[in-house]
């Protein structure tokens, strides 16, 4: 994190703070004490009923290394979006069960809120049967969003944002049901895959009378730059499994906040949003298969032309460094554009600065199908305030023409409304369901 | 952790305080005294941390949590009651006649030692709700009142959660309890 870009609600990214959570030297008492900060007490009663609400007493100051491994859960906005991306992702979509109504959804969200607040603090969930697995928070964040069906179940269709619906069909799509849709999404991210596995299991299990798992997508990523540089470019570029540097022209926080978080500015740009959605966001999930077996046939110069960037450091073909501005007018001695007409970076670019969104992608690498040598790709996750205004124009341009389309195939698609954050006395979704 | 604190109060004092407390219940909050302090009436405080109740549609279920006694004298919980069950008992796990672990009523109540805690866990001591009068659904809160040996009481709210454990066999004195199984609301066919 640089001095120029302080992000009080974000996971720390500086080299000192970013050291992995140390396992030794922190007792469980320290962990629990640290996590008690900011958690509310519950109502007290003496004989005649509830007498007073209380807060827990002052907690001991957390050990510095433990504090650095905790991303605060409570706040106006949910963590896990402008939080510098953690190394591991487990993305769980849920289908609501038959008969779940608004009252049941309130109960479900209260359970999720309570469990997430504990787990992200490095504290066992209330009914945790494996409490030891909860003690390494590893920057765990769990970000909760709701799909179109959530509003039908709650009988609140009039509160559904206009953009909250499946994306239109694109010619490049080969969508599969098993990677698409969902009534609720839990984006679980941490630097330790045991932490994400435990959180996914606890949360799925705790809400099982309300919802069942529709799909799970796991992913991983490796930052390409030093953490201090990563903070400047909205989480930093990653190396994807086609070998490309991915995420160079991402949104920059906090300067581009208004393109991610629904609020006064975004509504001025894109039109009114439902009142409950302020400080929420819009989430698009695309599962993109990489055709690595045919990508192997492409030589390095052709691979670089496809994107318009060098493979070694991600610099545009007209520049030297990753963040050099591409010169889209530059031509070769023979008069051809240096960055090809249908190169990915040219097609993905819009003259309208509002047609941008935060990318938070993860690689996936699953067991190959019989007869294949790879089953890899991207869990491509984006955050914006209005899918129709920000995401769709770019997606349409890429669908129309993008050299990269020959080696990438969208096989899953889902859209969710990310709920606003909550205080210790409230629950996720209160502004929508209350 | 979530902790509920209260002063243990004698019934007479409690009755006298009822009006005041009812007033205080209308949204007023009050900072908690630090753990280990003694309240003005000389009674020890008790608190409960992370209480919860296993969801069930009918029959029996159980409540758990950690009771803390920061006072200088032991506190003994001798009874518990709730509006959603006709009877509550204090149970412990013990070795049955054939060597298996069974739950049985805890003689003499649950002792919360001075300056210490009593943990109520699946597989250990717990509060038993014997005959539910309504389904306990995950995510709702129920109110439970503990009665101490000296007649003072302590009330708290406990959230209901789905849970697959705590399936212990009950070894009660009454014949008709033998076929009373703890209900499991954790199956997906259950109504939410």
List the helices and strands and how they pair.
The complex is a heterodimer of chains A (434) and B (192).
Chain A: H1 28-36, E1 43-45, E2 50-53, H2 64-68, E3 88-96, H3 102-120, E4 141-146, H4 148-153, E5 184-190, H5 193-206, E6 211-220, H6 227-232, E7 238-239, E8 245-246, H7 264-270, E9 281-290, H8 292-295, H9 300-307, H10 344-347, E10 358-359, E11 362-365, E12 376-384, H11 387-400, E13 408-418, H12 430-433
Helix pairs in contact in A: 3-5
Chain B: E1 3-7, H1 11-24, E2 45-54, E3 61-69, E4 75-82, E5 88-95, E6 101-105, E7 110-112, E8 116-120, E9 126-129, E10 141-148, E11 153-161, E12 169-170
Parallel strand pairs in B: 2-11, 6-12
Antiparallel strand pairs in B: 1-2, 2-3, 3-8, 3-9, 4-7, 4-10, 5-6, 5-9, 10-11
What does this structure look like?
- The complex is a heterodimer of chains A (434) and B (192).
- By secondary structure, chain A is of the alpha+beta class.
- Chain A has one domain.
- Helices cover 23% and strands 18% of the residues of chain A.
- Chain A has twelve helices and 13 strands.
- In chain A, strand 1 (43-45) and strand 2 form a beta hairpin.
- The two termini of chain A are 37 Å apart.
- Residues 14-44 and 174-192 of chain B have low confidence and may be disordered.
- Chain B has one domain: Immunoglobulin-like.
- In chain B, strands 1, 2, 3, 4, 5, 6, 7, 8, 9, 10, 11 and 12 form a twelve-stranded mixed sheet that branches.
- Chain B is mostly beta strands.
- Chain B is globular.
- The interface between A and B is large, with 43 and 49 residues.
- Structural class of the secondary structure composition of chain A? alpha+beta
**Greatest chain-chain contact:** A-B, 43 and 49 residues
Quaternary assembly: heterodimer
Enumerate the spans of chain A where pLDDT stays under 50 for 5 or more consecutive residues: 1-62
Low-confidence stretches of chain B: 14-44, 174-192
Major sheet of chain B = 12 strands, mixed
Secondary structure class of chain B reads mainly beta
Total number of distinct structural domains of chain A: 1
User: The CATH topology of chain B, please?
Assistant: Immunoglobulin-like
Distance between the termini of chain A: 37 Å
Rounded mean pLDDT of chain B is: 76
Q: Give the CATH level 1 class of chain B.
A: Mainly Beta
Tell me the radius of gyration of chain A: 22 Å
CATH superfamily label of chain B: PCu(A)C copper chaperone
What would the principal axes of the Cα set say about the shape of chain B?
globular
Q: What fraction strand of chain A?
A: 15-25%
Number of helices of chain B: 1
Question: Percent of residues of chain A in helical segments?
Answer: 10-25%
| Second CATH tier, the architecture of chain B | Sandwich
**What is the succession of H and E elements of chain B?**
EHEEEEEEEEEEE
